[in-house]
Write a structure and sequence with these properties.
- The protein is an alpha+beta fold.
- The protein has a single domain, classed as Jelly Rolls (Sandwich), CATH 2.60.120.
- Helix content is 36%, strand content 29%.
- The protein is built from three helices and eight strands.
- Strands 1-8-3-6 form a four-stranded antiparallel beta sheet. Strands 2-7-4-5 form a four-stranded antiparallel beta sheet, covered by helices on one side.
- The radius of gyration is 17 Å and the shape is globular.
- The mean pLDDT is 91.
Length: 156
């Protein structure tokens, strides 16, 4: 299996990426498994090596639980960035629709590495800001569509 190109590590040397990846441990996830739930403590950041993870927002609609798909994370992408962002609680639910292989990176070890090499930390957090910004755009688009639907239904 080819190693994915990681969006979180764009701009780092291969040596720096290797130093970060050696902090991780493999985390196979069976199809149908919930990796984490909204509000859980975010201890680890995850890199998708193969498979996919759906990030969903749990909702109650007419008294029934439902999960709204926010994003699908694929090889080369990360999930669980809340591990690096206070208050360190996951903001969505992560579900494996297929067999998936992740690399789990502990927050404490990552922050120790960044403290020892602020240049690497700067690049990673700059990339993280871009990724969080993309999530914000997705959330904003979803909110706008829902507001348009609500306003359109009121006009009828």
């Amino acid at each position: 299996m080819a190693t994915p190109r990681w969006d979180l590590f764009e701009g780092l040397s291969e040596e720096d990426v290797t130093r970060i990846l050696t902090l991780g441990s493999p985390r196979p996830v069976s199809q149908g498994t919930v990796l984490f739930r909204l509000g859980d403590e975010a201890i680890d950041l995850f890199l998708v090596q193969s498979g996919a993870i759906n990030l969903t927002l749990p909702l109650m609609v007419n008294g029934e639980s439902s999960n709204a798909l926010v994003e699908e994370r694929l090889p080369g992408q990360l999930l669980g960035w809340s591990a690096l962002v206070p208050p360190h609680q996951y903001t969505l639910e992560a579900f494996a629709p297929v067999e998936t292989d992740l690399l789990s990176l502990p927050r404490v070890d990552l922050l120790d590495l960044f403290a020892g090499d602020p240049g690497v930390g700067y690049v990673v957090f700059t990339n993280l800001a871009r990724i969080v910004g993309q999530r914000l755009q997705i959330s904003q688009t979803m909110w706008i569509r829902e507001m348009q639907r609500v306003l359109a239904s009121r006009a009828n």
